[in-house]
Design brief:
Blueprint (H helix, E strand, L loop, with lengths): L2 H13 L2 H8 L3 H15 L4 E2 L6 E2 L1 H28 L5 E6 L1 H6 L1 H11 L4 E6 L2 H10 L4 E5 L7 E16 L12 H5 L2 E4 L5 H13 L4 E5 L3 H9 L5 E4 H4 L5 E19 L6 H16 L1
Parallel strand pairs: 3-4, 3-5, 7-8
Antiparallel strand pairs: 1-2, 5-10, 6-9, 6-10
Helix pairs in contact: 1-2, 1-3, 1-4, 2-3
Length: 292
């Protein structure tokens, strides 16, 4: 049983004759008759009464007609949806981003993407790098933004942005007049940090391990506005991307004496075929990064 045979069968049933069906299908009448005969042979059932002037369905043919209509409608629906997806008239992109990038880097990109492709649905999830990787593996999101210093072997990554982590402190802090800050000086201060699992925290954990010191953590929170408030009131210093404090005159961003650069990448499951909508999103992000 194939789609062509079902289409021929349904047309004969609805028009009541092989010749009429052949005319509507734009094929020769013997081709229709042969297709129906092969269908009956494969099913080992008679589908039409042929001893009448107008052919009519047997009881078995009535049952098959009901299924044929449903099957052919499903095929038409699938073809229409595939066309819409190909033309980007519909589709969904599920992407996970860390808090800093979700708040300060991605909003204009997401809005520009939505403006260019208004029919596509965007679902944006905020989480730490490690949690995003787990969500990708579980299929909860299509892709996520990760720090690609040591990308997992089971993820495909495409770098789109390099950012420098900066030491953030109040404008009146004793260290604020320096050109840069050493790791030793940074780790003598009380720190305001993200919780574990975020790349912000992983940077600090890595730097403190390399320096052989234990960081003095005064506050742990993933709320960026709260971190900025705590730091601006002199209750600790932190590390953030420079873009986060660019418009805040109360805060100063100093590079580390040994600069800390982060390579940020879009990542998805290796070997997983991205939908056309997701491929378009990846291309768009890379295009925007290149233009920036």
């Amino acid at each position: 049983m194939d789609i062509r045979s079902l289409r021929y069968f349904m047309t004969v049933a609805e028009l009541g004759g092989f010749s009429a069906a052949a005319e509507q299908l734009h094929v020769a009448q013997p081709a229709v008759s042969m297709a129906i005969r092969k269908l009956e042979q494969s099913l080992q059932l008679q589908l039409f009464h042929r001893n009448e002037r107008r052919v009519s369905l047997t009881d078995e043919g009535q049952v098959l007609l009901r299924h044929a209509r449903a099957i052919l409608q499903a095929v038409r629906d699938a073809e229409r949806e595939m066309h819409e997806l190909h033309a980007l008239e519909r589709g969904e992109v599920r992407v996970g981003v860390p808090g800093m990038l979700g708040s300060y880097y991605f909003p204009p990109i997401l809005m520009a993407f939505r403006h260019r492709y208004p029919q596509l649905r965007l679902e944006v999830v905020e989480a730490g790098t490690r949690q995003l990787q787990q969500m990708i593996h579980r299929g909860e999101i299509d892709m996520g933004v990760i720090v690609a210093d040591t990308p997992p072997d089971d993820l495909e990554t495409h770098s789109f942005f390099q950012a420098q982590m900066m030491a953030i402190m109040p404008a009146d802090h004793p260290l604020a007049t320096r050109d840069n800050i050493s790791y030793d000086a940074f780790f003598t201060e009380e720190l305001v940090l993200f919780k574990e699992g975020y790349f912000h925290r992983e940077v600090i954990d890595r730097l403190s391990a390399e320096a052989g010191v234990s960081p003095h953590i005064g506050f742990e929170t993933n709320l960026i506005p709260l971190i900025k408030q705590i730091v601006s009131h002199g209750f600790g210093i932190t590390t953030l991307l420079e873009m986060v404090v660019a418009d805040d005159p109360q805060l100063i961003a100093l590079p580390f004496e040994q600069p800390v650069w982060l390579d940020l990448s879009l990542a998805w499951r290796k070997g997983h075929l991205l939908s056309r909508a997701n491929r378009t999103f990846v291309d768009f992000v890379l295009e925007q990064a290149g233009n920036g």
